Amino acid sequence: MTTIQKAVAGILFHGDKFLLFKKKGTWTGWQFPQGKIDKGESEEQALKREIEEETGIKDIEVVKKLPYTHDYWFQEKGENIHKFLTFYLVKVNKKENNITLSREHSDYRWCSYKEAYENLRYNKEIFKEAVEKHKNDN
After folding, report:
1. What SS3 class is residue 70?
2. How many of the other CB atoms lie within 10 Å of CB of 70?
3. How sure is the predictor about 45, in pLDDT bands with cuts at 50, 70 and 90?
4. Percentage of residues in the chain having pLDDT higher than 70
5. What's the whole-number mean pLDDT along residues 67-80?
6. Architecture of domain 2-137 in CATH?
7. Which of 19, 32, 9, 33 is nearest to 93 (CA)?
8. Contact 117/127 with Cβ under 8 angstroms?
9. d(Cα 128, Cα 124) in Å, to the nearest integer?
C-alpha cells in the first residue's frame, strides 16, 4: 500500500542569514524546518505550526509560496510513503538565538547564503532558485 503525504518546508531568513537545522534519525544532515500537513489544516497553517514546533519561533512573516515541490519516496513501518514537499520563503522578524530544538534535530545555525548552500543535504537547487528569485523581485 502507498500513502501520499503532503508536507511543507520553510526557508527561514533574517536579513542575509538563513536558519538550518541538523536532522537526526533516519539520516543526518542540515535542512529547513518541515513537516506534514495535518487533516483540516491549510498549507500555511501547517507551515506555521511546524516552524513553531521545530524551532519555538512564533514571530514570522510568510513572504511567499514558492513554485517548487520536491517529491520523494520512503518507507515507514513497512508502508510506502510518497511525500510531496511544498516550499515557502519565511521571514523571521527577530533573529532568534534561543531556538527550541524538537526531537527531530540536534543542532541549528544561522548561516550566510554560501554556508547554507554548502551545508544543505537536500534541496540545494530549490534554495538557490528561491533566494535568487526573491532578490530579483525586491
Report:
1. strand
2. 16
3. very high
4. 99
5. 90
6. Alpha-Beta Complex (3.90)
7. 19
8. yes
9. 6
Task: Give the H or E element holding residue 115.
Answer: helix 113-119
Say which residues have a Cβ less than 8 Å from residue 120's Cβ, sequence separation at least 6: 20, 29, 30, 31, 127
> Helix (H, G, I), strand (E, B), or coil: what is residue 97?
coil
**Distance between CA 14 and CA 51 in Å, rounded?**
14
Closest C-alpha to 120, from 4, 12, 8, 5 = 12
C-alpha cell belonging to residue 46: 501547517
DSSP letters of 15-59?
Answer: TTEEEEEEE-SSS-EEE--EEEPPTT--HHHHHHHHHHHHH----
pTM score of the predicted model: 0.90
CA pair distance 65, 44, nearest whole angstrom: 9
